[in-house]
Design a protein that fits this description.
The chain is an alpha+beta fold and 412 residues long. The chain is 34% helix and 36% strand. The chain is built from five helices and 23 strands. A hairpin with a 2-residue loop joins strand 18 (354-361) and strand 19.
Length: 412
């Protein structure tokens, strides 16, 4: 019995020793294992700005383009590209000899059409009216003579000196004379029908429009500056032959410019009139201009390979440094919060649509649900769940995922 108890005691001793060794092993492993290297950031208040960048093109607010009204030659040029000119200055003249000849022809056509209208509305020309009056007088005399002849034959017939056939012939001559007089009087009063009058009036309107058109060509052959501005484009030289419609010269006040910006379709909903704009031009690095949106897109168009909306941006500090038709970078501020409690976007996680962060608590991480506000490219606003001064983990240095309950060491 004593030997059995001794063997049992040894067994329990070995079992206890084994248990002790296992406990010591796992305790040592727990205490000596590597801690998760974590980067952290402090939660604090800062200005949170949301922006959308895109490209745009500079254009004058009021641009004056001069096109050749006809195919002709350039007679004289009085400016050079880049000249600043006062309002009313003569800029360019085209050869207008043929245009003036067409004016003379058109004026002649108007006079002929005007005479036709006068004739149609006054029952003919003066000569036609005189001939009509003479015709009426002659027909009236013939009627009077036929009436007297009928009276005489009728009295003779009563005494038997004239036959009934002679009376009938005299009455026929009277009726013929009366019909002729009536026809001449009607012709004198309404020689032209309403349709003929309308046609003459339409011909006059067409002739007057033609005259106005050729006079406009003559007027457009001499170009004057409508406002004080800069001749920023000159596409013709003296004695050059220019085709009809060719753009010859452009003038604008370059102190009043705007930008036509092209925003991609997904960003259009973020835009609103009045939003501030920052403008940069690669040709002048380090310099920037400012403006605001004055018109948002009314439709979506195809711009190269993009579906975009056109936005008009008024430049608030234009000083003629931006040249027309230059390509610029446009950045709109769609939202801003001057004193937002925020964390970097890489600190934010989401599961089933519920956002959370890993808050650093002592030597470990605590998964903390949060309510978020506006988000930009780098930061996210925290509405609730964190306080200023809290520390949150943004990631690890060894690529391992963040986990709650694992010992950490902060790497700065």
């Amino acid at each position: 019995m004593a030997e059995q108890r001794e063997q049992a005691g040894r067994l329990w001793l070995w079992i206890g020793a084994a248990v002790f060794i296992i406990i010591v092993f796992f305790t040592a492993r727990f205490l000596m294992r590597d801690r998760l290297p974590v980067r952290e950031v402090r939660v604090g208040h800062q200005e949170l700005i949301n922006t959308v960048p895109t490209n745009g093109r500079v254009e004058p607010e009021a641009n004056y383009e001069y096109h050749s009204p006809v195919a002709t030659t350039v007679k004289a040029i009085y400016v050079q590209a880049g000249d600043q000119v006062p309002a009313g200055k003569l800029l360019m003249q085209l050869d207008d000899v043929q245009a003036r000849a067409r004016v003379a022809t058109a004026e002649s056509g108007v006079k002929a059409a005007l005479a036709a209208v006068e004739a149609a509305t006054h029952n003919g020309t003066q000569e036609e009216r005189q001939l009509a009056a003479a015709d009426i007088t002659r027909n009236r005399l013939e009627r009077d003579q036929a009436r007297r002849a009928l009276d005489a034959v009728t009295r003779l017939n009563a005494t038997g000196a004239a036959s009934p056939s002679e009376v009938a012939a005299a009455r026929q001559r009277l009726e013929t004379a009366e019909a002729g007089l009536h026809a001449s009087e009607q012709s004198a009063q309404s020689r032209y029908s309403p349709t003929e009058v309308a046609r003459a009036q339409a011909a006059l309107a067409d002739a007057e429009a033609g005259l106005e058109a050729v006079r406009e060509v003559v007027a457009q052959s001499s170009y004057y500056a409508p406002v004080a501005g800069t001749v920023y484009s000159l596409d013709a030289g003296r004695t050059d032959f220019v085709e009809e419609g060719k753009l010859l010269l452009q003038l604008a006040d370059l102190k009043h410019e705007r930008v036509r910006a092209y925003f991609d379709e997904p960003d259009i909903g973020k835009l609103a009139v009045g939003q501030p704009i920052q403008i940069k031009w690669d040709a002048k690095p380090g310099q920037e201009w400012h403006g605001h949106i004055v018109r948002t897109p009314s439709t979506v168009i195809i711009y190269g390979t993009r579906n975009v909306g056109e936005v008009l941006v008024q430049i608030d500090d234009s000083n003629a440094d931006l040249l027309p038709d230059t390509n610029v970078t446009v950045t709109v501020t769609t939202s801003s919060e001057p004193n937002a409690l925020s964390v970097p976007r890489e600190a934010l996680h989401s599961e089933n649509g519920k956002p959370y962060v890993y808050k650093v608590v002592g030597d470990g991480l605590a998964r903390t649900p949060v309510t978020i506000g506006i988000i930009n490219l780098t930061q996210v606003a925290i509405v609730s769940g964190l306080n200023e001064g809290d520390w949150v983990a943004t990631g690890t240095t060894n690529g391992q995922p963040l986990q709650e309950g694992i010992p950490i060491k902060v790497v700065r």
